[in-house]
Design brief:
homodimer; 444 residues; alpha+beta; L-amino peptidase D-ALA esterase/amidase; Ubiquitin-like (UB roll); 2 domains
Chain lengths: 444, 444
């Protein structure tokens, strides 16, 4: 059932029939003479399929949600699209009626420029909140970008750069695998850095099971040449995001703009995956989960100021929801996160956070331990609420690497959850306090 | 009804019939030759009444709660005590059966040393979690402290120093006022600094209305010579804490040890306040609220690394619980807190946090503004979801002072709440990451 995944080149254009490009159109209005030809970061991207695609998406559950999200939700629900236009430098969030007009204008100009039917373009934005889009720049950028569309890895790199905000490096991946005898490609790009604790749902509605008060802007765009029906694609994506993008936190702030989109154009010619019971559904889903998890972990790894990435693995909770709540209390605790930054194996702060989490925790049942990522060899610092004989030095070594797994067993039930979290550093604070004398340093 | 409060000297010994002292007994086992006579910070205090007192208390609702809290809850419920022993440097939390033995041994030694009946002493601890108490030091400290008991402001200063951990300055207050023709005193001391977002209840049980996942060790000890019945005192304290200590946050971490105790010994000779309907109840409650709020704000002001204190005032929520949830989402958001540190009037981050809070928020109804503390003149940055004409410079000036009020009106109902919150600075991160090469730098 599990597909053999091989690496592929080209990220969002690894799949047949997709083209992309990224340009600098000065969304931040830094002024003239600063174009991408002068080394200025690109800020507008297009992803375009040669033919109409099935589409699936998940969107922020923040009640304050950006205009592009409001435009995408109903369009994605229809299951059909052919292009995505994305800008960085401005989130088009909290921009009222003008914001909705601007988001729609972006899709209309994209459709007109590419000769697509109305409603066949999607839009995503990331950057500062509360400032209306500089439409003159955007309206120059879209046709300029369309003129550069192509399918080489360099095109994908330009698009990936264009969606970055405080990201220090591009984030992309592509794989190929076999479905029904045909070679299928699945590739994607994403951006993150700050305001990262996504909690996304297909329609932006808050599920009752979503933990309260949790969640940055992350955007992810995935393309595939697999043939798959839109509703089935949505189910695969919802499951994949539940195990990846919705399981990360940098700073615990959920953005107004979080968006994940998958476009499937069927150009691989595999037998169309028409339902959850189709023989190729699990293989496709597994590949999608792999791509989503790889992209999600890149977001945490490159989070603002992040030095250490810690996968908090909670098991033995009374329910999955309690396991999730416990992992989020630990992964978002300022004191736990600063101890990770200091390389301090401080289990006192961890058990304190567990104790105030909504999860049921019994002190003399709690186990806390460490391993290298993915290893089964755990060094326990606490067993059944009692410090083990592990030495302080050995525990310090366990939390010294840039990435490690934190294992928490509550020993009360069968609920399990994993949260990919990050330390809290002076660099995060310094970056996000900005400099009011230079408003271009002030984040979203 | 409102009593006229005059300042008084002596903090916990302002009230008649109380004595206190603080000594250094080396709870952190820094070694010999470092006594308080050598300028080392005191680490053990006693508060003693000449006669038995009515007592009321509130305790952490963290499920992982320290041994001294477990000892105090049933003793406080009985409503009668005569002494409190307090140590800093070690929280006696997550110390299992030995921890309970040690906490009880502290009360027994205090009772024996002072000649009190069994069960007449309470105990509180603060400091590192997960290390058993150095009982040799404690057992030397209690009689040494008892030998120094006295009623001068200097005695109170020594006790206040002894309960400090990462606090940079002592926190104390006392007032006097008239009740039934008699002069009554009410005074207290507290400590805070980090792991501060208390959510306390009289029996440590978690009320359903408590926001999930919120809350440092704070300890507060208040004494009064008012005559008041224990159950009535508990009601007055529960109300006062709901408006003070339970309405602060430094880092959003709720401690295992949070404790507030009030001892009332009746030595003022006022007519005993025997119920909520007693004519002097409101006057006493008002004075207690004043003392609790003053102490609570001192904790935020001196929080670890804190530069700015912001009172988040939410009104117009659908309920008080929703107002509280909204205020906590804003007051604990890493991005909002770093913007306060930067002096950045970033309303985008504020509305983002409101949007992911459990409170209902409608974008085009939200007002956000600033005032100097207590002033009614508000500079609005956002009205009904739309940026106002207030200039960036004027908004920067509004958030530049060390203390300001942030006004958030949701305009959906009548729910109101205030949260006294703090910024997040590089100093907080630096302090709490500690230095594993010197384990004495590693916090609780």
């Amino acid at each position: 059932m599990k597909p053999k995944l091989a690496p592929a080149e080209g990220a969002v254009v690894a799949a047949k029939g997709f083209r992309t490009a990224g340009v600098f159109c000065d969304i931040k209005r830094l002024g003239t003479g600063k174009g991408s030809d002068k080394g200025q970061k690109r800020d507008l991207a297009l992803i375009v399929s040669d033919v109409p695609c099935a589409v699936a998406g998940l969107f922020t559950t923040n009640q304050i949600c950006a205009a592009p999200v409001k435009v995408c939700i109903p369009r994605t629900a229809k299951g059909r699209t052919q292009a995505v236009v994305i800008n960085s430098g401005n989130a088009n969030a909290c921009t009222g009626r003008q914001g909705m007009k601007d988001a729609l204008a972006m899709t209309r100009l994209t459709e007109a420029t590419l000769g697509l039917p109305p409603g066949y373009a999607l839009v995503a934005s990331t950057g500062r909140i509360g400032v209306t889009l500089p439409m003159e720049q955007v309206e120059a950028g879209i046709p300029a970008c369309a003129a550069l569309l192509g399918s080489t890895p360099t095109h994908a790199e330009h698009a990936t750069e264009a969606i970055m905000t405080s990201d220090t490096r591009p984030k992309q991946i592509a794989v190929r695998f076999k479905l029904g005898g045909k070679t299928v490609h699945l590739g994607g790009m994403c951006k993150g850095a700050g305001m990262i604790q996504p909690g996304m749902s297909p329609n932006g509605a808050r599920p009752a099971s979503l933990p309260a008060g949790l969640h940055a802007t992350m955007l992810a765009f995935i393309t595939t040449d697999a043939a798959i029906e839109a509703r089935t694609l949505q189910r695969a994506l919802t499951e994949a995001v539940a195990l990846s993008f919705n399981r990360i936190t940098v700073d615990g702030d959920m953005s107004t703009n979080d968006t994940v989109l998958v476009l499937a154009n069927g150009q691989a010619g595999n037998p169309r995956i028409s339902s959850l019971r189709h023989k190729d559904f699990i293989a496709f889903s597994t590949a999608l989960q792999h791509v989503c998890l790889a992209l999600a972990r890149m977001i945490v790894r490159d989070g603002e100021g992040v030095h250490r990435v810690v996968s908090v693995r909670v098991s033995g909770a009374r329910s999955i929801a309690e396991a999730d709540a416990a992992a989020r209390a630990v992964g978002n605790s300022a004191l736990v996160k600063t101890s990770w930054h200091g390389g301090d194996p401080n289990w006192g702060r961890i058990i304190d956070a567990l104790g105030y989490s909504p999860a049921t925790v019994v002190e003399d049942k709690v186990d806390i331990g460490y391993s290298t990522p993915g290893s089964k060899k755990i060094l326990w610092s606490l067993r059944r609420g009692q410090p083990t004989r592990a030495t302080f030095d050995s525990l310090c070594k366990a939390v010294a690497p840039d990435e490690f797994d934190l294992h928490i067993r509550l020993n009360l039930g069968k609920g399990e959850a994993v949260l990919h979290a990050a330390d809290l550093t002076e660099a995060y604070v310094d970056f996000n306090k900005g400099n009011v004398a230079d408003p271009t340093t002030l984040g979203g």
